Amino acid sequence: TGIIGVQLPMEKILDGARHLGPLLGGDGESFLAAADGFLTTDNGRKISSRQVDIGSEQITIAGIAKGAGMIGINMATFLSVVMTDAKIDAATLQSIQSRVIQTTFNCVSVEGHTSTNDTFLLMASGAVGNSLSADELQEFESVLEEVCLDLAKMIPADGEGASHVLEIEVSGAGCDHDARVIAETVAHSNLVKTCITGNDPNWGRIVSAVGYAGIDIDADQIVLHLLGQKLFERSEPVVFNAAKMSSAMRNNREISIQLRVGSGSGNAKIWTSDLTTDYVVFNADYHT
User: Fold this and answer.
1) CA dihedral defined by 258, 118, 279, 103, rounded to 10 degrees?
2) Out of 1, 46, 181, 183, which residue is the most buried by the measure of CB atoms under 10 Å away?
3) From 1, 77, 84, 185, the catalytic residue
4) What is the pTM of this model?
5) CATH class of the domain comprising 165-284
6) How do the domains of the chain map onto residue ranges?
């Protein structure tokens, strides 16, 4: 990844690739070296793994990822390779991957700007045992989702200049799609992001973002919690200690925003980062 439209130094890349063969390995150090080699503006490696007993076999799932800026819901700019020794055919693996990505990598954002490049590569060597049964595949998918969610959440947590990572949870919407639209709207609001940066429990910015999301809801049913503290319900703010709330935000890197918008079955979760002056400076000076 790099500046859009700038040609890569292919001779340098090809020359490096020619010398990689003798350096390849299957041990833990090689895995970590690959994770480190992935990085660009990331502050550190992003890795996650699980080793679980599924049926009569012990199966390993391990993944690496990179991404810290120019991250919008729909992956980019993001790269991840997840590997397993389970025996799963390509078509089944593709189906599993398509489902898992919707609740993991497609639920994270930094500034909401998608890019020209993104890859999520899922590989199964088949080195362990027999093919998995239908029930065992469901168990595999659940563990894979855990690994991918670990990696996905590391991206906004490492967002360029980020001081907080936000978990935005919407429930009670008419359907999951409506809940997701509301969650994404809150996540993409620069005013919400900056009030989190400033440790300001500004309920008005969050609730107004819900209002302009374009989803038909009853304002009287909106209930907002920030870090577990109720701030708004029945179309009015509730009494709370703003100074205490601000201190709690300052002392917590992870900020939970919970919004109940009705009595429907629709739910969604989105993770994003706040917006700091460090992010602005980094991206303003990135090219020129």
Assistant:
1) 10
2) 183
3) 77
4) 0.89
5) alpha beta
6) 24-157, 165-284
